[in-house]
Amino acid sequence: MAFRSLGAFLDELESAGDLLRVHGPVSRDLELTEIARRTIARDGPALLFENVVGAEMPVAMNVLGSTRRIARALGVEDLGATAVRIGELARLRPPAGIGAALRDLGGTLDLLKTVRSLGPTRVTSAPCQEASTDRVDLDRLPIARCWPSDGGRTITFPIVVTKDPETGEPHTGIYRLQQYGPDTLGFHAQLHRVGRSNLAKWAARGERMPVAVAIGADPATLLAGLAPVPEGVSNFVFASFLRSEPLALVRARTVDLEVPAESEIVLEGYVDPKEERVEGPFGDHTGYYSAPEPFPVLHVTHLTRRARPVYLHTVTGKPPTEDAVLGKAVERIFLPVVRLLLPEIVEMNLPVEGLFINVGIVAIQKRYPGQARKVMHALWGLGQMMFTRYLVVVDEDVDVHDLSEVLYRVGLQADPARDLEIVEGPVDQLSISNALPNLGGKIGIDATRKGPRDGFPRPWPEEIRADAATVARIDALARSEPGLARLWGRPPT
Ligand SMILES: Cc1cc2nc3c(=O)[nH]c(=O)nc-3n(C[C@H](O)[C@H](O)[C@H](O)COP(=O)(O)O)c2cc1C
């Protein structure tokens, strides 16, 4: 089921008992953060603050802060179902030759039909434009200060819409916007983001970049907005695909961009490529404050909104946080795309402890010498996987989600003199331990078993495992010995 708006999703959460209304007066400065932090730590519900001091509208938080809510937002029991659909979509490529074309025709045509029917629709009148003004006063929005040393109040969960001036292709990313004044915001699109490459293209033409910001879209559009969809694929098409229903777009009032019609609030304006201003500090995904740094400036020239909007907010920091839960969901649903490009990858884990970008563990089906290194380099060349600083490759029978098992394999099966691949390249802008910003080291650890083909001259020892006959005999014994059955659980018959 597709939720048409944030409000519709909040209604659904409330009837499912997964939303808590907070009635008491709460300050938007620091107090929203503390309440959300404690709630997420207990895997608690979405929060709707009805009385934020001085605010004209309620504030929603922790809306996608649990896997069950993300699954509900996508209308699935578990995210595996969405992963399968994305895998099918990604497999859609021109068939090689007439034979393959005929063979694939049925399934491919069905899926193509679905994808075509899922392009966004255009509407001329939209809830997000029920009210509008040119006299922008951002102080009337409940923009919050998240952490004590933040450089300012910050819009933390905006869908920022830009477009490529050459192709006209729209793009969305979640880039925080720190408030400078009544109509100016810091445009925190990091160096590697599509929002930044679009800005460079507008700069090359000597033009300002038009920008629209949707605050509080429907949950699937929000997810599509932060997902690392390949460059050239519109997040709006992907949003329609996730919703299994076309997303309604409306033309923004004063800039040549489209925005989700059911958004709560829309800011319209521009970024002048010649202008920068110091942004930060800001309590970031890393659990540290990101240092003040120059970033482009977003001038807001027009604001539209629903008659009674809800303001959507989130807080970053050391996990557990809402963005960490979202990061895990993105890892799960995009695994089939990674596997399409690297079919030898059986499983992948980007642990929350590694903030998704610092540490990656992949299990591979190894067929030839050097394959683990090939996988490392391929991943370092794949979208945002380029930021992975520690990449561990294990054999297919290792459970990548069992970190003690992974550590056991690394300690035992990797030889530091031979199995490390150390390279230098781009690292995430938020990364703190590299000497130069955006550039640093990465290490790949090949913890797969080695054999003569890998240049390993010694015989690889046999792993100790109980033999099947003994296991079966002891299972039978446990069935007739209540003490053992109690201790171990009743073995399957
Ligand atoms: C809550 C949240 C806040 C984020 N804030 C920022 C940000 O301030 N700057 C940024 O560049 N990316 C931020 N991101 C990450 C991007 O939205 C995400 O990587 C997305 O894929 C954008 O990449 P793209 O613009 O290259 O497509 C944030 C993500 C989340 C979930």
What are the defining features of this structure?
binds flavin mononucleotide, alpha+beta, seven-stranded antiparallel β-sheet, 30% helix, single chain, UbiD C-terminal domain-like, 2 domains, 493 residues, 23 strands, Pnp Oxidase, Chain A, five-stranded mixed β-sheet
Topology:
Elements: H1 6-15, E1 19-22, H2 31-41, E2 46-49, E3 59-61, H3 67-73, H4 79-90, H5 97-117, E4 121-123, E5 131-133, E6 154-155, E7 158-163, E8 170-174, E9 177-178, E10 184-186, H6 194-204, E11 209-215, H7 219-226, H8 235-243, E12 248-251, E13 258-260, E14 265-279, E15 282-283, E16 289-290, E17 293-305, E18 311-312, H9 322-341, E19 345-349, E20 359-364, H10 371-380, E21 390-395, H11 403-413, E22 420-426, E23 439-446, H12 468-480, H13 482-488
Parallel strand pairs: 1-2, 3-18, 4-12, 20-21, 21-23
Antiparallel strand pairs: 2-3, 5-17, 6-9, 7-8, 7-11, 10-17, 11-14, 12-13, 14-17, 15-16, 19-20, 22-23
Helix pairs in contact: 4-9, 7-8, 12-13
What would you say this structure looks like, in words?
This protein is 30% helix and 23% strand. The model is unreliable at 94-99 (pLDDT under 50). The chain is α+β, with helices and mostly antiparallel strands. Strands 5, 7, 8, 10, 11, 14 and 17 form a 7-stranded antiparallel sheet that branches. Strand 7 and strand 8 (170-174) form a beta hairpin. The structure holds flavin mononucleotide. The site of flavin mononucleotide has 18 residues, from strand 8, helix 6 and helix 9.
